[in-house]
Automatic annotation (TrEMBL):
Record key words, sorted: Signal
The protein's name in its UniProt record: Secreted protein
Signal peptide start and end residues: 1-21
Length: 140
């Protein structure tokens, strides 16, 4: 009988924890090998201190299961980057990267790093896709 309150408490805790959703949105065309870059809309947010939009990107194979990685922010089962974008200045600051051999680590001083111009077709596509919904991201 003592187990019932414990089971009830654990069940309530399980339902109270937030779910980690992932909405991977492609921003490049697939390559001839079927690879495509996407960003996670659910991870994306506006950084309150800098005003930049923080996005996690990943490369995935179209038609593969699972299609994208990582399975959670920082999980070491995908390949990608985290950037802080300035939509008005059209530049970005690399914050970190991850791969199956290297878990995601966000540089603590990223806000003080020099921004680089968003050049190249992939950077331009990311800026276009993310910045088209600039007002939709929560501020954190």
């Amino acid at each position: 009988m003592r187990r019932a309150p414990v089971i009830a408490a654990l069940s309530a805790l399980a339902f109270a924890l937030p779910a980690v959703a992932e909405t991977w949105t492609p921003y490049t065309e697939p390559t001839d090998k079927g690879l495509q870059w996407s960003f996670d809309r659910d991870y994306s947010y506006r950084d309150a201190a800098s005003g930049r939009i923080v996005v996690m990107t990943a490369i995935g194979k179209v038609g593969a299961t699972p299609r994208m990685g990582p399975s959670a922010p920082g999980a070491a089962d995908g390949v990608g980057f985290v950037y802080a974008l300035d939509c008005k200045a059209r530049n970005l600051i690399p914050m970190g990267s991850y791969s199956p051999k290297k878990p995601l680590e966000i540089a603590s001083g990223w806000r003080g790093e020099a921004a680089k111009k968003a050049d190249g077709s992939d950077d331009a596509a990311l800026m276009r896709q993310v910045c088209s919904a600039e007002g939709a991201y929560p501020t954190k």
